[in-house]
Amino acid sequence: DRTPPPAGAANTAAPAIEELYLQGVKHEERIEPGPAHAAYEKALAADPGYCFALVALARLDLERGNYALAAEQARKAAERDPGNSMAWYYLGLASMELPEDQRAMGPIDAAYKVIASLDNPALGHDLAGRIHKRGGRYADAVREFQKAVAEGPRDPRAEDNLIAALYAAGNGKDANLRAM
After folding, report:
1. CA dist., res. 9 & res. 5, Å (int)
2. Model's pTM, two decimal places?
3. Distance set, CA 134 to CA 40, 43, 96, 107 (Å)
4. What is d(CA 105, CA 76) in angstroms, rounded to the nearest whole number?
5. CA dist., res. 115 & res. 170, Å (int)
6. Could you give the C-alpha distances from 82 to 65, 76, 85, 89, in angstroms and in order?
7. Per-residue pLDDT of the chain (180 residues; tens, 9 = 90+)
8. From CA 47, how far away is CA 167, in angstroms rounded?
9. Alpha carbon distance 117, 25 (integer Å)
10. Phi and psi for 47 in degrees, rounded to 5?
11. Are 73 and 54 in contact (CB under 8 A)?
């Protein structure tokens, strides 16, 4: 049947999904992670590929320490929307916490996906810096955090990460100057 649906019929489910997602956002704003998680799960029950809910669940699961679940949610979001920098970011963060044999991809690969996105390269450099720092590659971490600060000069987290990496790299003088 090639008959077009009645006007407005194509989007009848979308407002309900968005409403569930926004309920989750409101719960997060009130620091109510349980109800937020439940609202995002309901949105996914209506549309299993709804990227905003997948990314939100990945973030919440990361905060709860459910790294495998966070990685799975973020991976699904990244597959659905490869340009979603937050999906790649949370996939990278979750992957850093998982044993190598449980990773869907290397965390540094996720970081470079974030850097390649046009909307948030500073976040990708921040993630790459964290990965290098955790691996003891402090000079590489400093370079990535410097790029993060250059891309997002008003991001205090990137600045703090740069200062910590400078200290770890043995460059306390520059770290102290930046901290002032």
Report:
1. 6
2. 0.70
3. 31, 35, 9, 11
4. 13
5. 27
6. 25, 10, 8, 12
7. 343 334 444 444 455 888 989 999 999 899 999 999 999 999 999 999 899 999 999 999 999 999 999 999 999 998 999 888 888 889 888 888 877 766 656 666 767 776 666 577 788 888 888 888 888 889 999 998 999 899 877 778 888 888 888 988 998 898 888 888
8. 46
9. 24
10. -145, 100
11. yes
Are 79 and 65 a contacting pair, CB within 8 Å? Answer: no
Host H or E run for residue 95: helix 85-97
Quote the pLDDT of residue 102.
66
Contact 121, 114 (CB under 8 A): yes
Residue 178 CB burial class (10 angstroms; 0-12, 13-18, ≥19): middle
What pLDDT is recorded for position 172? 87
Q: What does the DSSP 8-state code read for residue 5? A: P
> Sign (positive/negative) of CA torsion 92, 94, 97, 101?
negative
